[in-house]
Amino acid sequence: MNDVAKITELLQSYLNNDYFYAVDVKVAGARGGKLKVTVLLDSDTGITIDECATISRQLGNQMEEMNFFGEAPFTLEVSSPGVDFPLTTPRQFRRNLGRSLALTLTDGKLLKGILDSATDEQIVLDVEAIKLSKTKQKAALAAGLAPEPVGLTPFLFDHIKQAIVEISFK
Fold first, then answer.
1. Residue pair 150/125 in contact by the 8 Å Cβ criterion
2. Where are the domains of the chain?
3. How far apart are CA 118 and CA 124, in angstroms?
4. Model confidence pLDDT, tens digit, residues 103-151
């Protein structure tokens, strides 16, 4: 088991019976030098700075008591993912129902739309039509390219490379 998996396992006892969930855990640096552990947490209703600080103290103390990295010094940062952090878990998608997403698929296609629903296997995005100039429309037709999906379209998580909530100030 690698360090990230071990930290994720230790973290479980501080997640308040799955009220909170880990979005990302990273360990940066090389053993022997100073290491930085970053833990991003969230919940279905968000997470406060005080909640992050409490979990950080508890996890940090446990890691120090265990001598987790041996003699290597480390810093631990526990926070929530920012608004620009990609959605990675089904719970994050469900929390953002009704919001506008920019979706990059594994085949490189970029789509935008409103997140309609999310299950543990897929999302349904109400895909916006991409506006192409008449020249680009003709070129796409001549090349035999299939039109992009429009309207309610399901996407399996395996086919999503990245999903970012688009912030609107309207």
1. no
2. 3-79, 90-165
3. 6
4. 999 999 999 999 999 999 999 999 998 775 667 556 655 665 555 677 8
The answer to whether 135 touches 143, Cβ cutoff 8 Å, is: no
| CB-based burial label for 101 (10 Å; 0-12, 13-18, 19+) | buried
Predicted structure pTM score:
0.78
Q: Tell me: the pLDDT tens digits for 35-86? A: 999 999 999 999 999 999 999 999 999 999 999 998 889 999 999 998 889 9
Q: Is the dihedral of CA 38, 121, 162, 82 positive or negative?
A: negative
Query: Nearest Cα to 23, choosing from 48, 6, 40, 10?
Result: 40
User: Which of 120, 80, 116 is CA-nearest to residue 99?
Assistant: 116
Q: Which tokens belong to 45?
A: 């209703």
Topology classification of domain 3-79: GMP Synthetase; Chain A, domain 3 (3.30.300)
